[in-house]
Amino acid sequence: MLNRAIARLGAVAAIVLTCDVLSAQNLGTYGTPGLIDMPTAEVLPDGHLGFTASGFGPNLRNTMVFQMLPNVYGTFRYSLIDGFLGGGNTLYDRSFDVHFQLRRELGNWPAIALGLRDVGGTGVYAGEYLVATKTFANRFKVTGGIGWGRLATNGGIQSPLCFNQNRFCTRDLKNEGIEDTGQLDFGNWFRGDIAPFGGVEWQVNEKLSLLAEYSSDAYTQESQKKLIDINIPLNFGATYKISDATSISGYFAYGTEVGLQISYVIDPANPVNNAGLEKAPPNLIPVDQVALASWNLPDQNQDQPAVQQVLKQKMKDAGLILEGLEVDGSTAIVRLENFRYGASAQAIGRANRALANTMPKSIDTFAVVLLRQGLPVIRVDTKRSDLSELEDDIDGSWRSLARADLSDPYQNASQPLDGIYPRIDYRLSPYTAFAFFDPDNPLRGDVGIQFKADLMLRPGLTFSGRLRQPLAGNIDQATRQSNSKLPHVRSDWVLYAQQSDLELNHLTAEYIWQPRKDVFARVTGGYLEPMYGGISGEILWYPVGSRLALGGEMNWTRQRDFDMLLDFRDYNVTTGHASIYYDVGSEYRAQVDVGRYLAGDWGATFTLDREFNNGFKVGGFFTLTDVPFEEFGEGSFDKGITLEIPLTWFTGKPSKQVVGQVIRPVYRDGGARLNVRNRLYQHTRKQRGTRLASQWGRYYK
Amino acid sequence: MIRFIVFSALLLLGLAACSNTDYNIDTARELFFPNKQEFVERYKRAAQRGAPQLKLALLEFEEGSLVVQDSTRDGVITWITPDGGTIKTREQIIVGMIGFGAGLLAADVDDTLAMIQTGNQGVADRFHTYLTGENKTVTRTYRCVIAPIPGAQQIVLGTSAVETQLISEDCRSLDQHFQNFYWVMPGNRRIVQTSQWTGEFVGVVGTQVIP
Question: Chain A within 8 Å of B8 (Cβ-Cβ)?
Answer without folding.
Answer: no
